[in-house]
Amino acid sequence: MTSPFDVLLPTTERALLHRVALAQSEGRSPSFVGAVARDGAMVWSGSRSCVDGHAPDADTQYRIGSLTKVFTAVLVMRLRDEGLLDLNDPLEKHLSGTGVGEVTIAQLLGHSAGLAAETPAPWWERTPGTVRPELADVLGDDPLVHPVGRLHHYSNPGYTLLGSLVEAVRGVSWEEALRGEILEPLGMTRTSAQPVAPHAGGWAVHPWADVMLPEPSEDLGVMAPAGQLWSTAEDLCRFAGFLAQGDDRVLGAASVEEMRTPAAPPGAGEWEGGYGLGVQLARKDGRTLVGHTGSLPGFVACLWVSVEDGVAAVALANATSGPLTSVVAADLVRIVADAEPRFPEPWRPLPAAEVDQKLLELTGPWYWGTYAYGLRLGSDRSVVLEPLRGAGRRATFRALPDGGWIGLNGYYAGERLRVVRRADGSVSHLDLASFVFTREPYEQGDAVPGGVDEAGWRGL
Fold first, then answer.
1. For residues 407 and 405, what is the distance between their CA atoms, to the nearest angstrom?
2. Is 236 left (phi over 0), alpha (psi -120 to 50) or beta?
3. Are the beta carbons of 201 and 230 closer than 8 angstroms?
4. How many CA atoms lie within 13 A of 425 on its CB side?
5. How many Cα atoms are found within 13 Å in the side-chain-facing hemisphere of 149?
6. Structure confidence by residue, pLDDT tens digits, 444-455
7. Which residues contact residue 455 at a Cβ distance below 8 angstroms, ignoring those fewer than 6 apart?
8. Rounded alpha-carbon distances, angstroms, from residue 105 to 98, 161, 184, 191, 218
9. pTM to 2 decimals?
10. What is the rounded distance in angstroms from the CA atom of residue 72 to the CA atom of residue 354?
11. Tens digit of pLDDT for each residue in 65-74?
């Protein structure tokens, strides 16, 4: 039986198709495909083409360029989760002889390794990979253009190194690992390293005249992990669901969330966006989007996911420049999220097994100095500490097996919260990264750092 939320309202569908039509027309693209997914399932797709009666659909392959990097990053994170490497490992530990072995795996994932943005000439996107058969050909004589770890500087050669890292640790080709570890488990049967019909052809559109020129479609060789893939709107909607929720067959939810977390400070003028571990981050229309853009000669692409809204959008076009797929994908997310916001989950009480009287005793107001905070319980014995008024540091804390909690976000991410008890077992205070939270503000006899004035509170 079809849920009413599995389909969009006709007015929403018309607004989506209008946006795609506008993108194809204004972007002067031979064709343009858009698609939207809600909670991991595609609920709409639409397209426009310059050829009457031959519009592509959600099963038509387009080249997705740097969207490939997200897949490469997932392969690396799988190696980490299996204990085969650590993200803080220097590259040299697993892949020797590169000349940049001091950079860490995490720095490569987040583009903070200081590597050059591109390979030495000729332009790698328009020449066959046989021109650069070895990593040395990709890196050149001076691979580092910035101090290692100091700033975000996007690097295509960096993801070539990560693809070679996967091959070195797995003992199979990057393409074989990709197919067996990501594409097959997620059912992405129309995503491949080489085009499989039906697929769009890549075109360059003259900037000053309405004429076109075919673009070459090269096999990128060792550069493949940076931008080789072809995919469809429907397959990318499946992948969007994975980026939002994780999938234990590929990568668990916690590791996918780690990928979506900023990994390095943005460069100058990039404050509206950032980069996680293989994932681009952007703020658009008041919401956070995660995913990636992509381009290769003849093609531009974008996948954006709003995890909070449960909405994802794909935009694919077969023109070298013109169509603003990043803007269009963000607009498709906005159209659906604003017109048909997701329904919140029904409120339900905690399961009886999670109700702990000792935890209940900790709920309610606490004071850090004179700042008032409230502590409430979440699921799985988690707690949330938030200011009761004014500005303050809010954080969620996950319960630890040995007692206490660890911060998951904000200022207190990674910091320990623990309950300190008196000799008689009663609660004295909460200790959070050396900050003391007491039941009353500056109460006599409480464990307040620096003590409390003996005269106590007073008037003027």
1. 7
2. alpha
3. no
4. 2
5. 8
6. 888 999 999 988
7. none
8. 13, 9, 26, 26, 28
9. 0.90
10. 39
11. 999 999 999 9
